[in-house]
């Protein structure tokens, strides 16, 4: 152990400590109307140039950091929308015939303010707006109709297992646990206190 720590120290000594005050960031205010940005990107000479368009929709979900209960609810919702072959939004997009594949992982919680991003690549120019409308209309339909109870239970079980075991990905368990806590560790005054909120959420469910 001492040998390993000495090895790490050689590299850590190259950096200087800094005050946590530097981690304070300005929160992004929500836009009153959607912003549309069009950009060009390099593509391979191979393939059909007419189907090289893509669309990527993003929403800012909150003007401040979410409490742990809302964060867990969003993880479950994200799983219902995109994480399985039968997920509502994923299935509708892949079966639409518009593009090649889905881009975006849905909920992004690596920052203090969560975002939701999703889109498709391999589109024709005419299909870009159609995919945008399909995504928005799918959300509207899900708001009105909701999700099947068995799908909700399955997603909850999956998220619970992932949080408990931290061995469902490609990272070692320790690294996985660190990555899950780093956002709150960076931007919360006392992120360990949030642990009690998980118990509250479990009882509520």
TrEMBL record:
<dbReference type="GO" id="GO:0004222">
    <property type="term" value="F:metalloendopeptidase activity"/>
</dbReference>
<dbReference type="InterPro" id="IPR007863">
    <property type="entry name" value="Peptidase_M16_C"/>
</dbReference>
<feature type="domain" description="Peptidase M16 C-terminal">
    <location>
        <begin position="8"/>
        <end position="157"/>
    </location>
</feature>
<dbReference type="GO" id="GO:0005739">
    <property type="term" value="C:mitochondrion"/>
</dbReference>
<dbReference type="GO" id="GO:0016485">
    <property type="term" value="P:protein processing"/>
</dbReference>
<dbReference type="GO" id="GO:0009507">
    <property type="term" value="C:chloroplast"/>
</dbReference>
<dbReference type="InterPro" id="IPR011249">
    <property type="entry name" value="Metalloenz_LuxS/M16"/>
</dbReference>
<protein>
    <submittedName>
        <fullName>Presequence protease 1, chloroplastic/mitochondrial-like isoform X2</fullName>
    </submittedName>
</protein>
<dbReference type="GO" id="GO:0046872">
    <property type="term" value="F:metal ion binding"/>
</dbReference>
<dbReference type="Pfam" id="PF05193">
    <property type="entry name" value="Peptidase_M16_C"/>
</dbReference>
């Amino acid at each position: 152990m001492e040998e390993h720590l000495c090895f790490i120290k050689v590299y850590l000594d190259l950096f200087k400590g800094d005050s946590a005050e530097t981690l304070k960031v300005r929160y992004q205010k929500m836009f009153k109307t959607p912003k549309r940005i069009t950009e060009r990107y390099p593509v391979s000479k191979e393939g059909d140039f007419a189907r090289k368009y893509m669309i990527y929709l993003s929403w800012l979900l909150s003007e401040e950091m979410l409490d742990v209960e809302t964060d867990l609810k969003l993880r479950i919702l994200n799983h219902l929308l995109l994480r399985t072959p039968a997920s509502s939004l994923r299935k509708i997009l892949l079966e639409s015939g518009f593009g090649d594949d889905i881009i975006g992982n849905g909920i992004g919680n690596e920052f203090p303010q969560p975002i939701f991003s999703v889109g498709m690549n391999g589109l024709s120019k005419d299909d870009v707006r159609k995919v945008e409308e399909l995504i928005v209309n799918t959300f509207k339909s899900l708001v009105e109709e909701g999700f099947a109870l068995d799908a909700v239970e399955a997603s909850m079980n999956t998220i619970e297992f992932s949080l408990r075991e931290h061995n469902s990905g490609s990272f070692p368990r320790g690294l996985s646990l660190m990555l899950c806590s780093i956002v709150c560790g960076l931007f919360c005054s006392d992120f360990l206190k949030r642990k009690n909120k998980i118990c509250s959420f479990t009882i509520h469910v």
